[in-house]
Amino acid sequence: MEAALLGLCNWSTLGVCAALKLPQISAVLAARSARGLSLPSLLLELAGFLVFLRYQCYYGYPPLTYLEYPILIAQDVILLLCIFHFNGNVKQATPHIAALVSSWFVLSLQKWIIDLTMNLCTFISAASKLAQLQCLWKTRDSGTVSALTWSLSSYTCATRIITTLMTTNDFTILLRFVIMLALNIWVTVTVLRYQKTTIKAE
Description:
This protein has helices at residues 2-18, 22-31, 39-58, 68-86, 93-106, 111-139, 147-166, 171-201. By secondary structure, it is mainly alpha-helical. It is built from 8 helices and no strands. Helix 1 packs parallel to helix 4 and helix 7 (147-166) runs antiparallel to helix 8 (171-201). The chain is 79% helix and 0% strand.
């Protein structure tokens, strides 16, 4: 029973993550605008994903517990390029991507570096959600922000809480997923609220 539940959570998470950012990317491409999206939020999210993936690889955790992160990072990079493209400054994406690539190698130079950054990872990821919330509160307009993407993120956090409890039982990782679940739900509710406000205004 436990093996079946673990398999369901792992594979459903991978399936959801394979399309997680597609609604957001589609919304941006359709509107030809990145209105409502927070660039700092996306950059912080990318940093958080990268640290988390490197940590899992470094300690040799089961691949099925983190296999979605390369997929999410690739989708975030595409979304990042879309934002820079529609803001008219694609070249500015280069230093950000270079910093992310170089950090992959720096993180594993010493054990204390990867441990320290993993402890900070929860704060980095939380900051990314709060940056998006701040953008929504400031503009009071969800713009092209996809509620579906954020609700799917909530689902993957919930499944990862289950898989972490059933496999590594790593408290640092578990705490991260609990906090991310709460913040993802908060962003989803905020996006839906401002979508309704915009519809009523129209």
